[in-house]
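Note to self: keep these together.
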Amino acid sequence: ADQVGWKPAELYLTPFEDPSRVMPYVGIAIPLALTVAIGSIQIRAMAANTGDEFNLCWTMVGDGVATIIASFFGSPWGMTVFIGHGAFKAMGAQVGYSAMTGVAFIIVCWSGLSSVVLSIFPAEVLNPIILYVGLVVCVEALEITPPRHWPAFCVALVPGFFNWALQVASDFAAAVCDQGFLINGVLVEAGDNAACAVSGRSSEAWSLTSTLAAVRAFGKGYILTSIV
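Structure:
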């Protein structure tokens, strides 16, 4: 309840005051920015497929300006245009749809209602929605991609699957260790003079076998690998 209340966004300029705190994340930020930029180009092509020709230059400029403004308020995400232009157009949505979506986001985020939503609907319930959006994006990408390039599209998905397997396996191993250990039939909780020899989330765990090492190699840096 204490999280609910009108709390407008405030300027957060700390990263600009101390760039050294940002440098360790540049390796993630640049590939992510490239992904967003390519996404904007792709979505613009999808819109053209439905008969709506938008200026690509101004589309990219709009994304960049919105990203810069958001960064002043602490947002680490790059802005991009709406995915699913064809579906929005089929529903009769126009520019007002985008404007009202922005207003809705401001109300939900600034009022603290997002914490209420997350307390009612756990992340496990919301993840299928993200999965559905991802599938829609893949379908629309294939619609504008010549068939001869489909094999490259499928191969580009492989590093993402490996990264997903990497995260799930790490969480599983860590959860098993956190349950504790049986010593002479007696349960000993983790931390009470008992711990896994190798942490499930450490790089050492992924070097125990060649298969694990291969999964980690294919999964790490998957965003940049998929772009290439």
